[in-house]
Amino acid sequence: MAQVKQSKSVPRSRLSHIGDPYDTMNALNPLEQKTKHTMKNFFISGSAQIWKSRLSWRIASVVFLTILIIQAATFILTVQEKEREQFKQIEEIARSAITPALETTAGMLSSPLTQRQANRVISTTIVNGLSVYSTDLHLLGQYGEPVATMMLSLDNIGRTYRSPDGSSYEFILRPNDLRKPYIIIARINSEDINPYIINHAKESVIIMFLLSALVTSVLMIALGHWLLEPILFLRNNLLAARENPDNPKIKESPYNPNDEVGEAINVAQSLIKQNAENMQQIRSAAEDKIHKLAYYDQLTSLPNRTLFVQKLTELAYTNKESAKKLAVVTLDLDHFKDINDSMGHNVGDAILRGVAKRLSTTLPDHSFVARAGEDEFAVTCVLSQSNTARDIAEKVAGIIRAEPFKVYNENFQIRSSLGVATYPDDGDDPNHVLKNADIALNRAKEEGRDRIKEYSEDFDKLVQERFQILRDLRDALEKDELTVYYQPQFDLKTGTVIGAEALIRWWKKDNSKDGGHFISPGEFIPIAEQSGLIVPIGEWVMREACTTAKTWHEQGKDIRIAVNVSGAQFFQSDLVKHTMEVLKETGVKPELLELEVTESVFMDDISVAVNTLKQLHKLGVEIAIDDFGTGYSSLSYLRQFSIDRLKIDQSFIFNALNNSDDAAIAKTIINLGHSLNLKVIAEGVETKDHEAFLIAEGCDEVQGFRYSKPVPKDEFWAFVSDYNGSLKSFNV
């Protein structure tokens, strides 16, 4: 066995023909520096905007990674090939060192290497160990380091072996390689192979990254110039157009319109400008439309109240120095709602257009006419020394009543109520003067319509008083200052008390010696109806009356209580639901509650009225028509409504003895009620003669001051308890 010696490194000179990786890296430094310099120049000279673009970075990343992946695949293949080349080279070095040392032997069973020759080869070359075999695989000798490979079969002749730490490499020299009939397994030093491959890999990676960066940079320069910069230019213009679409601050395109990108930019620029023009036109049209909607009435094309106030303010300011006065006239078409309800809104609209046209064409050019409300108009003009605000109002009224308005071959004679105020006599603020004209208009309507009322400070005081009453009435409802009085109702045939009408009373506390005073229902009920406060007041009265009726029932008397129901209660609240809740809450029998409704309520919406009365009747509640004969009486609705009683208005009873017409009306109502199987009750019976008249005509029931004025519930109970059941006991 040959002497085994330790592994040794091969001098770098022995691998000089392989190439020094460190020398190669040093040789590539100028290339690296040049590439870095090129990249630096590119980043400096290139458009900074491109590299701020996310799209640019995406394209650059995709291109860079694509090139990198391709080079990485190539690198893997080249590293493996490079490694094979290195092993081939050291195999050739070892073969060149071993072959000259072989000698021809006398027989095939002796080694062609002497120990001395083997030691010389091992000590002077990269060979570390040798195993010599004959062609029939007999081991002839071993030299140097032990060889791991064993020749057990000719199938192993092409195999190689490398130690786990990579320091040794074993390969087989065949007879053809040696030109002698022997097989030699050579163990050679390969510890320089790994550092070489690693250095080669580093070099390749650096070149790969630099090349990828260089190609990507060149590509990005081209893309930036031909594609990305135009896209970013277009993007900036689009952003500018978005920020200010109707007046975009966009730059003219510097790009060639003959290529696809330049053409696309030009088209986009044209669309941006076209969109801006369209938006300017739309904005202008919209502003005109908004102005018209905000300041003009759509039906008549007249200015509306808002523009009227602006014009009035402008005229007041313009004529302030010259001390000229302004007339402010507001007018309301009398009974216009009746025309709308009976003839339809088409006729009403046509009349409104006719009034607007007549006023705007007939009044002087310096007059300003506006539609201030549904059927309300306003006029203002500068007064001359020869006319007054009332003169203007009379002219306006004359224009409207001059001749009928013809609509669909029908003539409509229109009258108007007018309110007049003068600036600055009736206020130094134009808005205040217009409000005063409205106050005067309301006064004209309250006094019977078809008239002109000039503003007076007394009107304003009355308005303030009405508002004060409304505020006090709200407080009275919250503080339980309201109470219910009851006026008895009698059966004319038997003289028995069969019912009572519940009447609201308001005792308003004050600092007088009596501690307060009564407010007349005629004073506060209309205000409550106009404000809608009548709804909660009416609900409170119904609950209070039903509670009282239940108390009387428990004390042994069933007395029907009549409660008045206003139009607001009838249509603005759920009267049926509230009545049902009150009956359930108080436990009173439904037949002890009678609801009195005036005829005017039915005229607003007859279908709703019919349905509501039917539902109330199903509850067992009785229904009476109050003040029958004073409204728009119609026999047609009496057939449809579920009613139990007609109530003759006290005005007919009061004058029946002196006025044959009133007497005839009272008789007719009694006969009509009986023909429809309805009870008839007369109110306002004050004398024995009134009673005798009603008995003679067959009236069923009565109430009035002849028997009792309305009294609190305790006094009413005392009255009923003391009453002997005979009407003759009343001597009035």
Measured between the Cα atoms of the first and last residue, the distance is 165 Å
Helix content bin: 40-55%
Q: Uncertain segments of ≥5 residues (pLDDT<50)?
A: 1-46
The largest β sheet comes out as: 8 strands, mixed, barrel
Coarse shape: elongated
Please tell me the overall pLDDT.
Answer: 83
Count of DSSP H/I helices = 24
Task: Give structural notes.
There is one protein chain. By secondary structure, this protein is an alpha/beta fold. Helix content is 52%, strand content 17%. It has 24 helices and 22 strands. An eight-stranded mixed barrel has the order 13-14-16-17-18-19-20-21, surrounded by five helices. It has a five-stranded antiparallel beta sheet with strand order 2-1-5-4-3. Strands 7-8-6-11-12 form a five-stranded mixed beta sheet, with helices on both faces. A hairpin with a 5-residue loop joins strand 3 and strand 4. Helix 1 packs parallel to helix 6 (193-243), helix 6 (193-243) runs parallel beside helix 7 and helix 9 (336-343) packs across helix 10. The protein is elongated. Mean pLDDT is 83; it is low at 1-46.
